[in-house]
Amino acid sequence: MDNTPFSIPLTMSIGFGLLLIPAATKSLRRMWAFLSVLLLSIVMWFSTNLSIQQINRSLTYQYLWSWTINNNFLLEFGHLIDPLTSIMSILITTVAIMVFIYSDNYMSHDQGYLRFFAHMSFFSASMLGLVTSSNLIQIYIFWELVGICSYFLIGFWFTRPVVASACQKAFVTNRIGDFGLLLGILGFYWITGSFEFRDLFQIANTLIHNNGVNSLFATLCAFCLFVGAVAKSAQFPLHVWLPDAMEGPTPISALIHAATMVAAGILLVARLLPLFIVIPYIMNFICLIGTLTELLGATLALAQRDIKRSLAYSTMSQLGYIMLALGIGSYRAALFHLITHAYSKAFLFLGSGSIIHSMEPIVGYSPEKSQNMVLMGGLTK
User: Fold this and answer.
1) What's the CA gap between 198 and 59, in Å, rounded?
2) What are the helix (H) ranges across 210-330?
3) Which residues, at least 6 apart from 125, have a Cβ–Cβ distance to it below 8 Å?
4) DSSP string, 105-173
5) Terminal alpha carbon distance of the chain
6) What is the pTM of this model?
7) What is the residue extent of each domain of the chain?
8) Max CA separation in the chain (angstroms)
9) What is the pLDDT of residues 56-89, one digit of tens each?
């Protein structure tokens, strides 16, 4: 139970080591990929073990330590291990292991091999920290770390103007959602006086049922929290960054923009579902956004000529289905579809990457050009 969080700083240390001393590790770079896979395998084993324990005993583990600012303010940090955490940990680690193994050969020709695995390791650690967070402050910290890792990975080939534009677009769009998330966190702290999930749910439910808080203000705060999920999970109208994010290497698309990062918004809504259920109109609004997103994503996917952009819009549509399921309170159906979609879409991205693998390092590469070559059977450089 307590060993899972310790794997997070170990994975982060690998990423920082590759960033700080790339020359010393150049001759041993494949060893770092092996070590990353090994650490992720250890985390996957602990996650699986915890999941089995929870199935057999229905247990929830929470460990907290206090960080006191003054006598009137108490901030606690720790980790929360419940069924949602176990499911997401298994999902993140299994997909990440497959992507890391695939990337070892896919990126072997690239001069930025070490930088690639540094950012990927840092991203995996940030996602594991996000899913094990026990309060809204930790959620926000790891939320921002996931965002900055996405910026680095989308802009991996930053010398290309189109790639630089895509990573900046993703960064700015997600900052809109992050600002809304911050306002929602501060608003609910003002209402409840707590960042912890259990206290937050209990106090908010009591106040709302007893008319102890203005319902309009509570709805506004919940809307701000949901804006963060809208941006991270590419929901309408903050979906514009996801198709352009396909300019990054294909393994990044498989890991971040199909299986894990876009699932962070779903995780946030699922984690805060006991809070959203008791707030008027917010569940209806989640249903509306999910419906618009699924219809828009499916329609736009039909008009794409590039295979990666088509998969990106398909991802957007499927996330809309998951958000709709959460909006109607179907928690288990949403998580089931999230798992099946993550694995299937990751395999689709990796499969498409095998087709256009030889074209991505070409100077002057464009997704439209590569897809036209694929359609015409021109797979030679």
Assistant:
1) 15
2) 215-232, 241-244, 250-255, 261-271, 273-277, 282-302, 307-327
3) 8, 9, 11, 12, 15
4) HHTTT-TTHHHHHHHHHHHHHHHHHHHTB-BHHHHHHHHHHHHHHHHHHHTTTTTSHHHHHHHHHHHHH
5) 50
6) 0.84
7) 6-375
8) 70
9) 776 677 776 777 666 677 777 888 888 888 889 9
